[in-house]
Amino acid sequence: MENFKWLDKWYSKHVIENHKENISLEIKNSSDMGWILKVDFRITDYKHLKLMNESKKVSDYNYFRIEAQDKQFYGEADFTKLDFLIGKFRAFVGETDIHSLENDFFLNPDIQSFIFEEEKDSLIFLHYTYEKEVAEKIINTGFNFSVAFDKTTTSMYNDPIDINYNHLVRKPFGKFVIVICISKEIYHKYSKLVSKSGNRYLKVEEILSEKPVSKNELSEDVYTLNRKFIKGFFNYTTGEIITNKEFNSKYDSDQFRKNI
């Protein structure tokens, strides 16, 4: 939001102090639902403008292009990068040099394949974390959660808009992304058993564990999803992928039934 606030102040200052100088500033949607930012202030006395010609395209839903010279700025990008475009314009007028797009390999084919290659037969969930050590521990010991499984994970569907939106929302929670895959066959099997049990508060994810329920510092129940359902994790800023050699989305255990 910092760049939006800057643009508001920058434009207001121009209107107040340079009301005779016309600036054409336009923010609009592009044909592919992305953003376009166009600014034309050739008749102003602005100086120290930077020549900019930058572009990057990872996919149809992860791209940007900047062309700026002679007091004209043109930028276009996907629907998640309006703040980024404003930041580039901010750098163009010389008010900051610090605005870069962190490497983000989330939409790269290798990572997308890693996430979705089980999609036909499995339910897929992602969990973001800051520390690699935490991601490695989840592979080795299972995924701990309290309150509700869906509060710390996001269910994934192989739709470009859905994928990009969920990543945009979740990425502030860390650059290491845990991939969880549970066989639809296993999930539906225990969903039916839970329904027959009459316990309407019990969730399938809570019983797919071979560890006893524990308590956290808030006296909340802590469940541990079995490590077999952890496919691995990746670092979306480097593209590194770490797999779980024990991964088995169809894993079943007598203990699961006992947990109901």
Radius of gyration: 24 Å
Based on Cα principal axes, name the global outline: elongated
Number of strands: 13
Q: Oligomeric status of the shown chains? A: single chain
Number of structural domains: 2
With strands numbered from the N-terminus, the spatial order across the biggest sheet is 1-2-5-4-3
Q: How confident is the prediction overall: mean pLDDT? A: 88
Q: In which range does the helix fraction lie?
A: 25-40%
Largest sheet: 5 strands, antiparallel
In the predicted model, the low-confidence regions spanning at least 5 consecutive residues are none
Helix/strand/pairing category: alpha+beta
* Count of helical regions: 9
- Distance from first to last alpha carbon: 46 Å
Order of helices and strands: HEEEEEHHEHEHEHEHHEEEEH
Q: Provide the β-strand percentage band.
A: 25-35%
